[in-house]
Amino acid sequence: MKILISHIEVLEAKRIMDHSGFKKANFVSSPSHMRRIKMITDHVFQQNNSAPGAYQINFVPIRAESSLPKAQPWDLKNIRNVVYEYIKMAWFFSYQLIS
Asked: For residues 44 and 3, is the Cβ–Cβ distance under 8 A?
């Protein structure tokens, strides 16, 4: 499932950053995935911590697509993508309870 892969990818990025001593990172993805990626990175990097030396994480949407298509924002495909993102977020919360 993609949510697990995303979570594993963020864990691996943190491991590499910690090994190399990096404190700043940019996460680049489609605008439709940004909310879920931010939720995962906040959990992994504990972004609620504003202590000195904390990680500085930025989220950069790709320019290839807008966050909502201007022509038909209520198109069935767009609605399905939003629903799938919320399902993935719910899975992430559930996954956190069992891990």
From this structure: no
